[in-house]
Specification:
By secondary structure, the chain is of the alpha+beta class. The chain has six helices and six strands.
Length: 149
């Protein structure tokens, strides 16, 4: 098994937001290789600022290219950060697609490929507490590790 690439929650959200905004994988990798922030222009808006992406990654020794190509594990998830990551990575809405509570995210439905990505990516401070399969896909309950539900 290859060592996993660890990146911050913020970096992960920026990568997934770029994908959500239609930046194709080859363009994403090219932008990362060349360090051209301008390439992220389609994803740049009030909430998503790419100006610090490369300096932060360099400072924290994040391998952006490897993370974008092979996947990554988030080093630490906050509840709100995990909510945003789920929205960006899986094109979901916390208003209608899942419920966010204190230390818990419930009624999250994912397909198998999405579930695999979540398992690989989720920071170790969160855990998949419940998983059931039904006609809509996998229904998940995520909890903050160590929190008794």
């Amino acid at each position: 098994m290859m060592p996993e690439t660890k990146i911050s929650q913020h970096t992960a959200i920026l990568l997934e937001h770029a994908r959500k905004c239609g930046i194709q994988e080859d363009a994403l990798l090219q932008a990362i290789r060349t360090g051209k922030v301008e390439a992220f222009q389609p994803a740049q808006n009030g909430h998503f600022d790419y100006a610090e992406l490369f300096s932060y990654a360099q400072e924290h020794e994040e391998d952006l290219e490897k993370a974008a190509q092979e996947g990554y594990r988030i080093t630490f998830n906050t509840r709100n950060g995990l909510k945003i990551w789920l929205e960006e990575a899986f094109r979901l809405s916390s208003e209608s697609d899942f419920t966010v509570g204190e230390g818990v995210i419930e009624n999250l439905f994912l397909q198998e490929e999405q579930l695999d990505k979540l398992k690989m990516t989720l920071a170790v401070n969160w855990t998949i507490a419940e998983i059931t399969l039904d006609d809509q896909g996998y229904k998940l309950k995520l909890t903050l590790r160590g929190l008794k539900s």
